[in-house]
Amino acid sequence: MATPAELARLRTQLDDEQTDHLQRLLGSWSLLADLAFSDLLLVAAVATPPPGTGPQMVVLGQVRPNNRSTVVSQDLVGQTIPEKQWDLAAEALHSGRLVEGTIFVAELDDDVPVWNIPVRYNDVIVGVLMRIQGPLRGPASLYERTYLDVFERFCSMVSEATFPFTDEEVAAEETPRVGDGAMLVDAHGRVEFATPNAVNALHRMGVYSPPDGSRFDDLGVEASLVSTALGTGRPVIEEIERRPDVAVLAHCVPLLDAGQVTGALILLRDVTDLRRLDRLVLSKDAAIREVHHRVKNNLQTISALLRLQARRTDQPSVSSALLEAERRIRSIAIVHEILSREPGDQVPFADIVGPLVAMAKDSVVVSQPIEIAVSGDLGETTADVATPLAVALAELLQNAVEHAFSGSEETDAVGHVFLTLRHDRHELVAEVRDDGRGLPARFELETTPSLGLSIVRDLIRTQLDGEIEMVSLDAADGGGTRATITVPLEGHSRGADRP
To answer: Are 4-159 and 345-499 in the same CATH fold?
Structure first.
């Protein structure tokens, strides 16, 4: 399904600024649907209709009200409609006037009232907002009449190109809706109407006096959003906190007539529970990061103890084994250090690669200079992938710098180690390649006596369900050794979610 912007680009002659204006309308028009108790459609003229079909319009957007059952259950976005079929919308598109009438709705097998509001931008009609109204349930109540009156005022703003507001951001998920609580104030900020939900929100803030007839700023609410919106003619969103356990999100939308502010609609939503959950999540994240920090500190302590023990032994083989164990523990500590800085359990693997490469460079014991180059990125991985993969790469890098160039006669030539990383949609691929002397004759990874390579093999296969391949390269490919690790992401869903 194409987006509204893509539909506008492919089917209409609208330029980028006109398309952006319609995009802002689509981002704000759930407010209009709730005020009108109606389904809304946004249509625009098709640039080049097929030969012999006549003028056509394309549906760029569709929204349903939250406070009334839908009338148009079919998804019409992307459909092309002949202008002669929706003649009233075509009239509004070409005349620039609001056109009222009826439209046949197949779901109801009947004609229903429809308003066709021209959408203007820089004195050009760029589309039509169709309001398709369902059957009314008896006489309209006071709040329904108020909503419909406010909707008519917004219709005038749409026709005058003052709504949507050019500098307003697209509504977020927690932005208040009409059903959360609505208040209407006049040009002086006096409350003309408040829904029961809005009164309840005021009660949560400790305001118990009737709001009708009072200035919003005089109700005891410490918020400047109404005076700011009325003074600037721009919408304002403010979170009002009363006591540590109460938070109300307020969205004040000014109402304009011929560019003059005539009042404002205030939407109120009690977000106390949301903020409490936010605090719990932040507290949980902080606790998890603290655990990773302590694990990292403990691993570093163990690493330091192993280094001290290695220095105290007179047996080279024992010292080497202790230092290898210390290096592996340090690789795990690097992952926990990153996790202690980042919220959640996703690890930017690029932050791990740098310390691993530095650790391999510090362990170079041959006289030949060695350079390690890194290319590519694995993106973000989960901790259960990052830890064994970091240990495996540390072993392969260490193996390359220790053994690929040992015994080389050309001590002045620079040895190269290449670490290449790739993140496909379904797998992670890491390749360590060197231009050294290659693998020993009759080398088999399955039966290798090397403890480090055995650890790598078992980590990749048992913990990551992956595969590892090690081969010697011939002279045509530059010589040396190539070790390739492939890790499928099907079993690691969070890593697989990365596009």
So the answer is: no
The whole-angstrom separation of Cα 56 and Cα 172 is 33
Sheet holding 236-241, edge to edge: 191-194, 182-186, 260-270, 247-257, 236-241
CATH 3.30.565.10 fits 345-499, yes or no: yes
How do the domains of the chain map onto residue ranges?
4-159, 178-270, 275-344, 345-499
The mean pLDDT of the chain is 84
pTM score = 0.60
Task: Give residue-wise pLDDT tens across range 361-390.
Answer: 876 655 678 888 999 988 888 878 888 888
Beta bridge partner(s), residue 418 = 373, 433
DSSP letters along 355-403, please? HHHHHHHHT--SSS-EEEEEEE---EEEHHHHHHHHHHHHHHHHHHHHH
Does residue 418 surpass a pLDDT of 60?
Answer: yes
Peptide bond into 164 cis (omega under 30): yes
* Topology at the third CATH level for domain 4-159: Beta-Lactamase (3.30.450)
Buried b or exposed e, range 339-361, using 16+ CB within 10 angstroms: bbebeebbbbbebbbebbbebbe
SS3 content of the chain, % helix, strand, coil (to 5): 40, 25, 35
pLDDT tens-place string over residues 460-497: 988 889 999 998 888 777 788 899 999 998 755 444 34
What is the residue whose two structure tokens read 């912007």? 5
Give the CA diameter of the chain.
Answer: 98
- What is the average per-residue pLDDT within 126-146? 84
SS3 405: coil
Evaluate if residue 272 carries a pLDDT over 50: yes
What is the CATH class of 178-270? alpha beta
